[in-house]
């Protein structure tokens, strides 16, 4: 009886050692884990998984008020929705192992996750599993299941066994090595290590069990090649999506409201700038067929445009302007595998689930991490003072930016001071440093708040000079400050002013000056004074993408950083939002009005 119990105990320990982790369960709800990335908001995360914010909050109390980079959120797994089965990569997992778990070819997983590469196949990343895959969650375990050595799981975690390629389990004997065991079973050492990933970091232990895989010729559905290990590198190379060379003629479509009264002048100017980019490329030998369509107003359907025969042949589409047109155009682009550039909107959820979208303007929250990084680099030795303006206009308040900046400063052990704008006259002198640069940041982007601050500072600095006290004061502000340049340009220079923006230009820049002259020559008119300048936006987006396509064709996504490009107004630093979604532009400038009366546009992605 004791022997029977001992055998049973050993069997339970053995079987318990060979279970595969799947999405955990809380109550009746299966979930997987999402690691929050810098700039992500709760709405963005819910959108990329096709669920509501409330469903995330239920599993993650407190997340409605705050989430932070690095936080692991429980995301409900919706098994009943097509194309919405997700998997969080576990430590030690490989692409091949996922093909076994979900019974789906490696190519199907790679096709569903165009952002997935060998280098970013990392624990904690989430993958979209194609609909053809059937999850083992909740399925009965067959009597003949062969267990593979994957990961020890606590009893409280829901687990499920998986069909393995293990021919048998081998108990390690004294003196055996990976090479000797591989030789005895007629397999390569690499194949044995792939079946037992822990052997990469751990030595063989006498008495432990390891998986002996079937020879490659008898593994049903094997993704490997005889004699080659089924590691990530081999699977990615073997199942790489076929790329095509650059097309001899680029087919390009622009879909914008050219005839609608409200937006006509801006859209026409964007198109005019785009035409100048096309002309520049044609002079270098690039062939382009440009198709231009009027989308009509917000209530007009674009379905007739999308039904045109030539639309399915496009290499890239630019537009639309209106939110109502984005989804049908995005769906069309996804179905026909056509790149879609959204030049205008910053509110777009399609980018989270459509790998063909490039979103030029993004939510400010995605830019804040880039801004904080450069700010703490540029002003690492400064005396930082945050001015609470008491702004009542919600639109002008920068609460989110200031809150994030304070957190970043604290995380990096920066000291900063806070001062109410109403008591500046009495207390500012005590906060200023005569040994460091003093960088002042108002909590509002309004012109009213800026006017008040400049007036107060001018008086304070004048009083300090009367007392023979020197204090170098700088201002730091927001994109809106470029619209106030005419009012404050001399003050900007005097206060050594910085502001951040995703776009900036002025006619003192040689390339911008040349564009303005060429535009005047082409169209016998000046560009509109808008923020951004639509003609330059058309030129920048047209030149960047069409040049990239002409050079790299279907390999464009792998070569975005290699596109040589001098922006007139806007630069591009694209990042995929997830492995199955599209791209957002995270480029941001710092604009510096120096005391030497120079205006410098600094690309935050290239600071020293």
UniProtKB/TrEMBL annotation:
Group of enzyme by EC: hydrolase
Protein name (database record): Putative sporulation-specific glycosylase YdhD
Entry EC number(s): 3.2.-.-
Keyword flag Hydrolase: yes
GO molecular function: hydrolase activity, acting on glycosyl bonds; lytic endotransglycosylase activity
InterPro entries hit by this protein: LysM (IPR018392), LysM_dom_sf (IPR036779), Peripla_BP_I (IPR028082)
UniProt xrefs under Pfam families: LysM
Ranges for domain LysM: 32-75, 85-129, 168-212
PROSITE patterns noted in UniProt: LYSM
Annotated PANTHER family: LYSM DOMAIN-CONTAINING GPI-ANCHORED PROTEIN 2 (PTHR33734), MEMBRANE-BOUND LYTIC MUREIN TRANSGLYCOSYLASE D (PTHR33734:SF22)
Alphabetical UniProt keywords: Glycosidase, Hydrolase
């Amino acid at each position: 009886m004791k022997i029977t119990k001992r055998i049973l105990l050993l069997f339970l320990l053995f079987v318990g050692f060979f279970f595969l982790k799947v999405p955990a369960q809380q109550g009746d709800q299966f979930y997987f884990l999402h690691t929050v990335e810098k700039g992500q908001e709760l709405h963005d995360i819910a959108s990329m998984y096709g669920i509501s914010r409330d469903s995330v909050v239920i599993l993650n109390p407190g997340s409605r008020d705050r989430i932070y980079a690095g936080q692991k959120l429980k995301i409900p797994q919706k098994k009943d929705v097509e194309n919405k089965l997700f998997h969080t990569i576990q430590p030690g997992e490989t692409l091949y192992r996922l093909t076994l778990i979900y019974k789906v070819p490696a190519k199907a997983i790679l096709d569903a996750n165009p952002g997935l590469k060998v280098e970013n196949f990392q624990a904690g990343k989430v993958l979209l599993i194609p609909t053809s895959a059937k999850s083992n969650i909740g399925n009965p375990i067959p009597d003949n299941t062969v267990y593979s050595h994957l990961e020890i799981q606590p009893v409280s975690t829901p687990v499920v066994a998986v069909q393995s390629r293990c021919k048998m389990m081998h108990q390690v004997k004294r003196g055996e090595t990976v090479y000797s065991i591989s030789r005895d079973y007629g397999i390569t050492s690499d194949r044995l290590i792939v079946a037992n990933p822990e052997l990469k970091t751990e030595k063989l232990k006498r008495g432990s069990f390891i998986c002996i895989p079937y020879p490659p010729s008898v593994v049903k559905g094997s993704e490997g090649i005889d004699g080659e290990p089924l590691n990530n590198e081999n699977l990615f190379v073997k199942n790489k999506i076929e790329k095509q060379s650059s097309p001899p003629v680029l087919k390009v479509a622009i879909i914008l409201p050219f005839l609608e009264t409200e937006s006509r002048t801006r859209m026409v100017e964007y198109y005019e700038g785009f035409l100048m980019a096309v002309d520049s490329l044609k002079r270098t030998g690039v062939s382009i067929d440009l198709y231009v369509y009027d989308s009509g107003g917000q209530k007009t359907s674009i379905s007739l445009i999308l039904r045109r025969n030539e639309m399915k042949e496009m290499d890239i589409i630019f537009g639309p302007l209106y939110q109502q047109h984005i989804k049908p155009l995005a769906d069309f682009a996804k179905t026909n595998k056509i790149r879609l550039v959204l030049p205008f909107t910053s509110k777009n959820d399609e980018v989270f689930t459509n790998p063909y979208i490039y979103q030029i303007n993004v939510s400010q929250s995605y830019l804040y991490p880039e801004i904080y990084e450069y700010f703490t680099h540029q002003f690492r030795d400064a005396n930082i003072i945050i001015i609470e303006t008491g702004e009542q206009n919600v639109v002008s308040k920068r609460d989110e930016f200031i809150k994030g900046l304070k957190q970043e400063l604290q995380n990096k052990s920066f000291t900063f001071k806070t001062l109410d704008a109403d008591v500046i006259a009495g207390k500012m002198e005590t906060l200023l440093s005569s040994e460091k640069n003093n960088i002042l940041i108002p909590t509002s982007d309004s012109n009213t708040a800026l006017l008040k601050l400049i007036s107060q500072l001018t008086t304070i600095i004048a009083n300090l000079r009367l007392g023979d006290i020197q204090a170098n004061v700088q201002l730091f502000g927001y994109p809106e400050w470029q619209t106030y340049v005419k009012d404050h340009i001399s003050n900007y220079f005097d206060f050594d002013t910085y502001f951040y923006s995703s776009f900036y230009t002025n006619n003192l820049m040689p390339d911008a000056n040349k564009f303005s002259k060429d535009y005047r020559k082409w169209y016998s008119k000046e560009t509109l004074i808008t923020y951004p300048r639509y003609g330059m936006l058309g030129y920048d987006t047209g030149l960047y993408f069409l040049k990239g396509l002409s050079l790299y064709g279907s390999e464009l996504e792998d070569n975005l950083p290699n596109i040589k490009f001098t922006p007139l107004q806007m630069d591009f630093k694209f990042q995929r939002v997830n492995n199955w979604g599209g791209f957002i532009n995270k480029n941001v400038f710092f604009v510096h009005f120096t005391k030497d009366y120079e205006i410098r546009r600094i690309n935050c992605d290239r600071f020293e």
